[in-house]
Design goal:
Low-confidence stretches: 5-20
Radius of gyration: 24 Å
Strand order of the largest sheet: 1-2-3-5-7-10-11-13-14-17
CATH class: Mainly Beta
CATH topology: Lipocalin
CATH architecture: Beta Barrel
Order of helices and strands: HEEEEEEEEEEEEEEEEE
Mean pLDDT: 85
Shape: elongated
Number of helices: 1
């Protein structure tokens, strides 16, 4: 009886040991998708580096009638912190350039007295914005397969270039995203990340909101 009891305990411990999530931490992550490319140094409790370039179709409150695309190139530096073997927290500073490719229009009205004679639309694009950034990346590992996080970034900069209409002398904004990550493979090297985002940019001339997504297929090593 005692022998059977020991065999039973061994079997139970084996089953529960097999069911216990196995977490796999790596030092680097590269991600790619059509119009998205990213590299991050994700080593726990170590220096963080992030380089990201992306373009995405967006929903926006502009009056653009075509080419509603937002694009960005950014470099980030920070520090990775790892708590409870589950929570990744990364404060960072960075710099980048963001461009709204939407074609918008303004309208000039011509009156004869109080009678509208005609109107004329002027189509334009807004200039790129060069900015400095600060923010926080957070990711929680529910198990070895599913991660959920939230990222916040503040931006301040200004429009550059002479070929488009400038945003204004000072542009401030935020970028908030919700990264949803599914990891797969025997050692969880691979992942697929859905990252819906909201970007808001405001200047003395324009105020724009953008809703879009930055999805990536990633590999960790």
């Amino acid at each position: 009886m005692r022998k059977q009891y020991l065999v039973f305990l061994l079997a139970v411990s084996t089953v529960f040991g097999a069911c216990k999530p196995s977490f796999h931490e790596y030092d680097n992550r590269v991600g790619f998708f059509p119009a998205v490319l990213v590299y991050e140094r994700i080593k726990p409790d170590a220096f963080y580096v992030g380089i990201e370039a992306w373009a995405s179709y967006v929903l926006t409150n502009s009056r653009g009638h075509s080419d509603r695309v937002l694009g960005e190139v950014e470099v980030r530096f920070g520090q990775n912190y790892f708590y409870n073997r589950r929570d990744h927290l990364t404060p960072f500073l960075g710099a980048g350039v963001i461009k709204d490719f939407s074609r918008e229009w303004s309208e000039t009205l011509f009156f004869l007295g109080k009678i509208l004679v005609r109107s004329k639309r002027h189509h334009f694009q807004k200039s790129p914005v060069v900015y400095g950034a600060f923010g926080l990346l957070y990711d929680h590992e529910f198990n070895s397969i599913f991660n959920l996080g939230v990222n916040f970034k503040g931006m301040i900069g200004g429009g550059v270039g002479h070929t488009h209409i400038r945003w204004g002398s000072t542009v401030a904004g935020i970028d908030v995203s919700l990264p949803i990550t599914f990891r797969f493979g025997n050692e969880r090297h691979w992942d697929f990340r859905l990252e819906p985002f909201y970007v808001f940019l405001n200047s003395s001339r324009f105020s724009r909101s953008y809703f879009g997504g930055r999805s990536t297929l990633g590999y960790r090593f």
